[in-house]
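subagent[fold] <- orchestrator: predict structure for attached chain, return tokens only, no commentary.
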Amino acid sequence: MSTQGTGIQCEQDGRPVQLVRLDEKGDLILDEEALSRCLEQRGVGDAPICLVSIIGEQRRGKSFLMNCLLRRLQHTEATDASWMGREDEALGGFECTNGTVTVTRGVWMWDQPLWVQAQGRKVAVFLVDTEGCLDLQRHMETSIKLSVFSTLLSSYWIFNISNTFTRTEADYLEMFIQVAKEVGETCNLTPIQRLDLLVRDWQLSGAFGVDGGQEYLRDITQDLEASAEQPLTLGALKTSSTWCYLLPHPGTGFTKSRAGTPGAVDEDFQQYLCDYISTIMCSAGTHVRTDRAGQRLTGAQLAARMKDVSRYLKTKRYDFSSPMKMAEAFAAIRQELNSRAVETARREYKQFVQEQDRDHQSMRSCLREKPLEMQRQLEGKRQELLEHCWGELRGEDLQKQEALKELKQELDRQMDKFLLVYKQRFKMMEENKRAVEDTRREYEQFVQKQDHDHQSMRSCLREKPLEMQRQLEGKRQELLEHCRGKLLGEDPQKQEALEELKQELDRQMNKFLLTYKQCFKMKAASLGLSIAGGVLAIVGTAVGVGAGVGVAVAAVTIEEAVALGVGAGGLSFGAGVASCFAAWCRRKVSRNTTGTNTGGQGNEREGEDGSSDQEPLLQGDR
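subagent[fold] -> orchestrator:
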């Protein structure tokens, strides 16, 4: 299948960046800045991601396969092999040679996402090339650590195999799956989501592609069942998420080529290669990275997990010299992570209980929340924290259940201890409320009695507002002191209850005093008008009769009216008129009686009748 003359230009955005490298001491270093540029860049940080990762021995064409995937994902609209470009055009992308020198050391990733549509959403696809995780020339510890990072950066694994699946490949896969299992339990990731066994240079039969591959996969699983030496590998290969695909030899022209151009491969190889690459492109969007609960991870979430693992490996200096040591190291990491998650939940619950205690110290706030309702709130918060902690715990479900059981017991102890105190406090506050209500009721009755006893004009005007206020304040203070002796609890709680009670009594007092003052003024004004009207009526009567006896009687009546006292406004006017008129009458009577008028008697001053405007408005009986 020739692609010559298609003229497709592969304008690639992005470049391969090395995320994990070896330093001078042989330790693995994660480039966190490069990782953030890839997985936390705009649009990727909050998007689901698919990571297609190829593992296998070096110099087996992994980089060539990766570049084919890159070219295909950059030309998703192509319906034939035109996406491969011209026959003499190098694919570009990841460095690719057919020599004996390893090109890509560590873990490399294409730094730009290759977007695909899947189930109505956009998925960012990244290509990851790992070199050295299955390299026998390297130290075992380095291989295992490289496998750790490769596992983290994989949701679609391609195990690149040459010729046949041998005992060596089975051992490699066993170790790799064990690493994936430990990493998955520690980082809350699905260990293996999709696994392809890609067998290159297949020559045992003429059946290629997926049909020949699935038949060969059945043969592999039968052999593994017979040997029973690689249980993890056997379990992984028997799942529905594992496929096998057979590719023929690419041809001698390709093996001699250094550039790896499309024109150097045989037509059969190109046909099956295009079919396999297109299959990956079409399904990549459905193989997004997920956690153990099946929830999709975003680029930012995966980057955070990788940084955490890198820091653990760097600071703790765990031994990864063998798969067993690696398992022990990850078990220690999980233990530390679980202890941290449990302690966080315990501390958050303690703070919640302390907040409930602080917010329900007063009588009002405490009585608003009955013990049963408080218990429901505490149980709800406990359940919320237990569920959250379950999601944070690492390891097998049995281990997580044990840790969660211990946490629940601790939270229950905190809850029971607080509820015991709270129930006692609630009961005490109910007693205090009764004491406060009794005091409030007694004061209300006292105020009502004052109101009832001062309804008449005489009783009202006999008690001025200021004197009434003194009586009410005295009663209030008496009741507050009495209530203080009946209240239970600490002094701050008593003081707060008394302060609220005082405010309530003050409201009752002020409300009554406002009405009382208005009533007092109205009665005083009414009395003044009555006196003034009485005086005018008496004057008219006295003038009409004109008899000495009548005048004397009128004068006496006026004296009695004046004796009622002085008020403001109309009262002053009425008393003044009455007083003046009384004096005039007396003088008239005196003159009429004696029939003589001496010089001194004619100069009598007003006001010498003995009346005063400073007496109480109403006086009691003497």
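orchestrator: received. Logging for downstream: Residues 432-522 form a domain with the Methane Monooxygenase Hydroxylase; Chain G, domain 1 fold (CATH 1.20.58). Confidence is low (pLDDT under 50) at residues 1-11, 539-578, 592-622.
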